[in-house]
Design a protein that fits this description.
Keywords: Membrane, Transmembrane, Transmembrane helix. This protein is of the alpha+beta class. The protein has two domains: about 60 residues; about 90 residues, Immunoglobulin-like, CATH 2.60.40. The two termini are about 30 Å apart.
Length: about 180
Amino acid sequence: MAYQQPYGTYYEPRRKRGLKRIIFGSLGIIANGIGLLVMPILAGVVVMMIAMLSVTPVPSGSDSVTFDASSSSLHFVYVPTTEANSASCTVEDGAGVNWEPEVTTLTATVDGTEYTPVGQLDVTSDQEVTITCAGAGDVAIGEVGVGGTLIALVIGLVIPIVLGLLAIALLVWGIIARVRS
């Protein structure tokens, strides 16, 4: 004979499991979706700013400089800060050279002289480039490799993807636990 519970006996309801995992998994997916858009840009900007602040220009001693430009680097052209607003620079060997004149507030000090960048250039292939800056007594070149920026962009993509996969796993685990309970 089977044992029966008396009428009116209170039974605790079965506990539903997995709700926290579903909530945190869903929030993680949303956060990582946003991170997938923001992180690569933020990482690239931060690394590029650090690279620009750490570049050391090499003075030429004249108003013209010829150097070997690499396609895997950005090259910044500096003039003494006192001459930055009056300097006008031109690229003489300009085949495949993208020259962007721009005076910025970032400065670098070399041998007691403060230099300000007046433009940047990049090349499509490794070549020799000559830059002449009228109105400047000295032209300096600073080079920044773009490899670090590319690595930062990749890391900025990989971290949100890995965390997003973990959030999806947490969500699935929560759904399975919820259905089983």
